[in-house]
Amino acid sequence: MALITKTPEKKGKTGIVKADGPLGGLDRKLLPPDTLSKLQLNKELLEAAEKGDTGKVADLLKMGADPNAKDKYGVSALSYAAYERHVEITRLLLENGADPDSKSKLEISPLFGAVGEGYLRKYSNYSREIVELLISKGAEVNGVNTNLGLTALMFAEYGASEILIAHGADVNAKDAFGDSVLVHAKRRGRDDIVGLLEKHGARE
Question: What is the arithmetic mean of pLDDT over 14-30?
Fold first, then answer.
C-alpha cells in the first residue's frame, strides 16, 4: 500500500503489519474476551477490505466488526477498499456507517486516494462509482490532506476532476506552499485538466 511506511516487523500478505501476532504485540491476558474478539474481527475486516473479499466483509460486519476500524497507521477499512477500487466493499462499509472522511495518521482520506493519479503513485486510474459513492455519503470535496495542504482536485484524474468540480471543489484552492490546483495540473503535464480547470475559472 503506497500510504504505509513499512517496518522490518512481520507482515502478512495484505501489507498490514502483524507485530507479534494478530493483536500487534498486545498481551492477551490483559484483555477481556469481548475485547479480544472485537480486535480480531476488526483486524480481519481490514484484511478483507484490502483483498476485496466482499462476502467476508459482510459477514464480519454482521458479527460486530467496526466499520470504522483502522490499522496502526490509521488507515481505515474504507480507505483500503477505496484505494484498491473495491466498489461493493466501499458501498457496504458506507451503508454500515463508515466515516467517508476518515483519515490516516498521514492525514489522507478515502476520497484523496480514490481520485486517481499523483500522490498515490500506485494508481493511474480512478473509480467513478467510488468517487461518487464517497461524495454522496458526505465526503468533503475540499478536505485538506497531508501536512502539505493538498486537496483531492490537485491530484485527480480527468474524470474524477469533473465529478469533484460538479460537487463544488474549489478550483482555486492552494496547498501549504501557495501552489494552486492549476499549478499542480501543469506540473503533472496534464493539459487536458489544465483546460478543464481554466474553463471553470481556475487561476495560478
Answer: 42
Q: Which phi and psi angles does 130 have, rounded to 5°?
A: -70, -45
DSSP state of 97: T
Find out whether 103 and 73 touch, Cβ atoms under 8 Å: no
H/E stretch holding 142 reads none
In total, the chain counts a number of residues equal to 204
SS3 150: strand
- Copy the grid coordinates of residue 78: 474504507
pLDDT band at residue 126, thresholds of 50, 70 and 90?
confident
**Rounded-to-integer distance, Cα 125 and Cα 128, Å:** 10
481505515: which residue's cell? 76
Average pLDDT over residues 7-34: 44
Distance between CA atoms of residues 186 and 57, nearest Å: 40
pTM: 0.80
Residue 51 identity: K
Mean of pLDDT over the chain: 85
Collapsed DSSP state (helix, strand, coil) of residue 33: helix
Map out the domains of the chain with their CATH numbers: 28-199 (1.25.40.20)
**CA 110 to chain CA mean position, Å:** 2
Burial of 47 (0-12, 13-18, 19+ CB in 10 A): buried
